[in-house]
Amino acid sequence: MRRARGILLIVGVLIFLVSVMFAPSVFSFRTASGQVATSPYAGSEACFKCHPGEFNDWKVSGHPYILIPAEQAKNMPLPLPAGYSWDDISYVVGGYKWKARYLDKKGFFITTAAGKPGKNQYNLMTGAWADYEAGKVKKYDCGQCHTTGYSPEGSQGGLPGIVGTWVFPGVGCESCHGPGQAHIAAGGDKKLIATDRSAWFCGNCHIRGKATTIPAVGGFIQHHEQFNEHLASPHRKLACVDCHDPHKKAEFSIRTTCASCHSAAQAAFAGSTMQRVGVRCVDCHMPMATKSAVSLGPYKGDVKTHLFLIKTDPEAKMFTPDGAFAKHYVTLDFACLQCHQDKTVKWAAQYAKGIHSLGKRKK
Ligand code: HEC
Ligand code: HEC
Ligand code: HEC
Ligand code: HEC
Ligand code: HEC
Ligand code: HEC
Ligand code: HEC
Ligand code: HEC
Fold first, then answer.
1. Residue 43: which of 56, 57, 28, 30 has the closest Cα?
2. Does residue 344 form part of some domain?
């Protein structure tokens, strides 16, 4: 027994030493100039051993995949713009839920296909190619929200098209919890790892422009501004993590349902016509008034809004007259006409008040 344990110990120490030699990224990282430096970052893989639950959830969420090195991306179900091969690509930007954009070997966006400007963005919901900055020379200056351990200085890998450097591509554990090396070295000391539960924290990335406005274009709110929407909503005092488990993909992340905080609305809704045909709270209160890649109808973008409050006045407008900003509520065109496509806002307004209990038998 003793001897077996001794051998196990020696084998363990050997594996440890070998892994230190061959996996320098765990204990150090290469700087832009190629030098090896010690890093306070451990990398998300290093968290798996002690936090397998969070790791496995995160691994199938969108956060890790917003910036994917080509060596990894070429094994994923993603096509390339016409005329390019994987040998021409350094990174893919996105490609998890809405759209993919591609960086060339020098770190610039690919803005052409088959030698012509455009058709360079792949839209996942339609399978179509769209134009993004067609034909332009465009640097990748998006790293602050797409990477872990970002610094605006220098160029990752020395690529001239990339603004700034990072320790790891994608939003890793340490993008939200801060560097984890010391926490691990201390065997999991709570005081050596950061956690910020506030909406403001998520708002570092889920924001566009000033937090106090809701920028819009082409009849839709623009994407990545959940924080702007949230601050304008009746939920502004809640944290994002009151509703979301931050490690899980959106669809599986809801830890507190609407019903658990709005029992009266839930009770009114139960047994109504809408409830019986399968319409859910989020269908009306979080319509896709926001757009990342495509619009699926005149009142249907591809991202759910976080405004929640529905304005039942048929004269109410969702956007400012110049279309540049959204107001703080959802109008009936977005809430109802996404499904009732042959109806008008006036029709919807007749039923909107008291809609929760529509079609219920009077007691
Ligand atoms: C998008 C930001 C974000 C990312 C990415 C993230 N976390 Fe978290 N994590 C949080 C927040 C915020 C909390 C605390 C709030 C909560 O869960 O309610 C938290 C809580 C935790 C907790 C405490 C859980 C508990 O029940 O008390 C652990 C452990 C943890 N995270 C580990 C990880 C690991 C490991 C990864 C990577 C695999 C990771 N996190 C990635 C934001 C993040
Ligand atoms: C302020 C932070 C921030 C900046 C800066 C930013 N993004 Fe994002 N991006 C996000 C967030 C948050 C999302 C996901 C939420 C959403 O789109 O509503 C996202 C989503 C995306 C997606 C879709 C991913 C998918 O799964 O389909 C792409 C592509 C993308 N961004 C490209 C870019 C490019 C290109 C730039 C720079 C020109 C950029 N982003 C700058 C925060 C940012
Ligand atoms: C050697 C095991 C181990 C590894 C590896 C490890 N942790 Fe932990 N972690 C722990 C333990 C143990 C706790 C619980 C500490 C406590 O409750 O006192 C913990 C707690 C946490 C918490 C909750 C802190 C709080 O305030 O409640 C977070 C967040 C966290 N770890 C993140 C990470 C991240 C991110 C990584 C990877 C960079 C990581 N951990 C790697 C052991 C580990
Ligand atoms: C460092 C920037 C950053 C921070 C901080 C951040 N996010 Fe994200 N988030 C992103 C980006 C970028 C995407 C797009 C990922 C993709 O589509 O590949 C995203 C996507 C998401 C998604 C949709 C993708 C999915 O997995 O279904 C949810 C939900 C989300 N974030 C919630 C949160 C919450 C909650 C917080 C705060 C606890 C948070 N995020 C903090 C950058 C960030
Ligand atoms: C963690 C608790 C919580 C959850 C979960 C929650 N809400 Fe709320 N909601 C609130 C609070 C608090 C307010 C503001 C106080 C109030 O007006 O009731 C609010 C306000 C609202 C309002 C405006 C009410 C009014 O009279 O102006 C609507 C609409 C709403 N929520 C819809 C939803 C929907 C739909 C969901 C599910 C996607 C949801 N809420 C999930 C707590 C919650
Ligand atoms: C068919 C669309 C629709 C569905 C489904 C729906 N709502 Fe509503 N909800 C509305 C409209 C429209 C209003 C505004 C009514 C008014 O101003 O008189 C509203 C108002 C509210 C309010 C504020 C006023 C109140 O009655 O308390 C809350 C909270 C709310 N809904 C929560 C929910 C929850 C929770 C669910 C799911 C159980 C849900 N809604 C399902 C359309 C819907
Ligand atoms: C009142 C509850 C609630 C709050 C607060 C909340 N969310 Fe959500 N969020 C939801 C629900 C419900 C969904 C829809 C989940 C699904 O896809 O079924 C969602 C979806 C999302 C999505 C995916 C959108 C899409 O259409 O793919 C992102 C990203 C997101 N939330 C980020 C955030 C961020 C960041 C915050 C804080 C600024 C936040 N959420 C606050 C309830 C909430
Ligand atoms: C997710 C899709 C969806 C949304 C969003 C939706 N509805 Fe419906 N609605 C349906 C379906 C399905 C039916 C049942 C089939 C039918 O009558 O068209 C229905 C039925 C109705 C009926 C007939 C009910 C009866 O008892 O005869 C009215 C009125 C109605 N909806 C009004 C609204 C209003 C107002 C809104 C917005 C506040 C709305 N709906 C939002 C899908 C939706």
1. 28
2. yes
